[in-house]
Amino acid sequence: MLTYDATTEAVTVRVRPVYLDAKSSPITGRFVFAYFVTVANDSPYEVQLLRRRWRIEDASGTVQNVEGEGVIGRQPVIPPGGRHEYHSFCVLPTFTGTMEGDYLLQREDGARFRAEIPRFHLAAGTN
């Protein structure tokens, strides 16, 4: 399975998408993908994940932007050398698409930065 990585200021975001065949229905145009995310903090500072911002594009070119606090209802604090893992899902009306975005992170000194979520491909039957 493919993984996609991006590193910003010593914080690495790794994503592994998976097509969920049993939850999908190609006849009705419902393609369900899970994605597993690891946020690894290799900086010398504690960071807190405050917000997420996603750009989701399906094969027809339709774009959906999603923003919100934290991930899966949490704003995790990640210590130096630590990681936070979670998974979620996305439903597309087409066989393929892409997702990308960023997380707003805050260091313990109050400084904020955006960590890139790498662009990753969603493809029915191949993830």
Can you walk through the features of this model?
There is one protein chain. This protein is mainly β. The protein has one domain: Immunoglobulin-like (Sandwich), CATH 2.60.40. It is 0% helix and 63% strand. The strands form 2 sheets. Strands 4, 5, 6, 8 and 9 form a 5-stranded antiparallel sheet that branches. Strand 8 and strand 9 form a beta hairpin. It is elongated and about 50 Å long. The relative contact order is 0.30.
Summarize the structure.
The protein has 127 residues and is mainly β.
What's the layout of helices and strands?
Blueprint: E1 4-8, E2 11-19, E3 31-41, E4 47-58, E5 63-69, E6 77-78, E7 83-92, E8 96-107, E9 112-123
Antiparallel strand pairs: 1-2, 2-3, 3-7, 4-5, 4-6, 4-8, 8-9
Catalogue the unreliable spans: none
The total beta strand count reads 9
Number of structural domains: 1
Tally of separate helices: 0
Helicity range of the residues? under 10%
Distance between the termini: 6 Å
Using the coordinates shown, work out and report the CATH topology.
Immunoglobulin-like
Described by strand count, sense and barrel closure, the largest sheet is: 5 strands, antiparallel
Strand content: over 45%
According to CATH, the homologous superfamily is ApaG domain
| CATH architecture descriptor text | Sandwich
Order of helices and strands: EEEEEEEEE
What would the average pLDDT be, to the nearest integer? 96
Report the principal-axis shape. elongated
CATH class: Mainly Beta
What is the gyration radius calculated from CA atoms? 15 Å
Structural class by SSE content: mainly beta
